Amino acid sequence: MTTESESQQHLTGKWQLARFFKHDEVRLEPYLSDIQQRPDLLLIQPGKRVAIEFQCSPLSPSKLAARNAGYQKLNVTPVWVLGDYYFQHMKSQSQVALFANWSRKWGWYLLFWHTQTARMELWSQLKIDLLGRIGYQRYQLTAAGESRFIESRALCFDVWQIKQLRQQITYGLRFRTHKYMKWQNFCYMHNCLLQTIPNCCFEHAIVPPLFGDSIAILRYCLLILISDLGQQSVFSLQDVWEMVAELGQLVPVGQFANCNQRVVRNQLQLVLEAWLQTLTVAGYLQPLTHDTWQVTRQFITDP
């Protein structure tokens, strides 16, 4: 897609969006001098202001975070609506994390605007699988707040995904791909091998789009750190959070530029607690309180 076509799409989309939000007071490209930013649209609603950003071309995480930070200084809510470039290229979890937001009604979601049809599209209930593919439900939204279901692109788990992920690890190590070598070096430091991920790490394969790489890798790294504590050792949920933070350079977690971090933490805690419950049922852990566990069986054996 050329810069010229993107510019035309952006210009057309701004005017279409202004008509779409006609039930609100709409200001087109107002200059906010306090932060030196100019949103595509500013909606004046009872008790709040909403900045609509119609994004048609690639945008770096740092620039998006900077624009959101500016709006937050003025107590303006940013809403990012994506154009055709993103609609056509939104294929993996790393792309989702940049613009995804969360609501009680829609779960993790993305918004798209189609200039050819002047329609708003919602991808809701976003999920990812072991290979980083995304699943979602598609809806058309109206200005009146109504929604029309289009289709469901649900993810299904099968053993092929495990074989594919193990194959990716083998090839990644064979060709010394950077991220696979980082993971392997971590494993070496703890007397383990990346190739020997236990099958329990592949359970509950469909998860929210919170992780920069496969959830199986993060689970394996957590298992290694918990195993290092030693059998009969006791650890807490806070210890698990510290482990996740320690692993942040290996497996990015919860790096959403467009979502409240408290929401991200709450959603991530649900995933971690479900994982600890799985390990408890499997006999690896013994719960002591609602947020402490004892290691009852070693996870990893030395290669």
From TrEMBL:
<feature type="domain" description="Competence protein CoiA nuclease-like">
    <location>
        <begin position="6"/>
        <end position="122"/>
    </location>
</feature>
<dbReference type="InterPro" id="IPR010330">
    <property type="entry name" value="CoiA_nuc"/>
</dbReference>
<dbReference type="Pfam" id="PF06054">
    <property type="entry name" value="CoiA_nuc"/>
</dbReference>
<protein>
    <recommendedName>
        <fullName>Competence protein CoiA nuclease-like domain-containing protein</fullName>
    </recommendedName>
</protein>
